[in-house]
Design a protein that fits this description.
It is a single chain. Helices cover about 55% and strands about 5% of the residues. With about 160 residues, the chain is mostly helical. A 3-stranded antiparallel sheet has the order 1-3-2. The two termini are about 20 Å apart.
Length: about 160
């Protein structure tokens, strides 16, 4: 196993043991370097914990890859609501606006399907700026997660 392997989940117990080991190795290395004048390479860092945005990007990439491989059977894997939430979370993390039109193109959703999901997510108070009171989607309106939507995505990807 190399030091640059990144794990999505690393148990707290293992992380604490690794940190104790690194600390002990550093003390031994420093002592040896002082007493013998040796030049010692730095101790490798442990696996880096991915950010929440990295987790969301990874989930979206896996879903897009799965959809591409499914071909004509793509409808078997549809979860437009989750794709919308993940996409809006990544946009939030990158501080970039996303309109309904851009979201539909990015997720390859038909306008009617997108409008239904945006309406549902807005009624559940998970997103804002989605659908007019007439029930039609304004393609130029920027969409965003609400605080509840953000908390939901963080809860779901925190265990990924």
């Amino acid at each position: 196993m190399t030091a640059d392997i990144r794990l999505l989940r690393w148990p707290e117990r293992d992380r604490e043991e690794y940190e104790r080991l690194v600390s002990a190795l550093e003390r031994v290395r420093a002592s040896a370097a002082r007493s013998r004048g040796e030049i010692v390479a730095p101790v490798p860092a442990g696996p880096e914990e991915p950010s929440d945005a990295d987790r969301a990007r990874t989930l979206l990439a896996q879903r897009r890859q799965r959809d591409a491989m499914a071909g004509d059977l793509i409808e078997l894997f549809g979860e437009p609501g989750w794709d919308i939430l993940l996409t809006l979370f990544v946009a939030y993390e990158e501080a970039r606006p996303v309109t309904g039109e851009a979201l539909g193109a990015l997720l390859s959703l038909r306008p009617a399907v997108l409008a239904r999901w945006l309406d549902l997510l807005a009624r559940r108070a998970l997103i804002r700026g989605a659908v007019h009171k007439t029930g039609t989607l304004d393609p130029a309106t920027p969409l965003a997660l609400t605080d509840d939507g953000l908390a939901l995505v963080l809860r779901c990807i925190g265990g990924a």
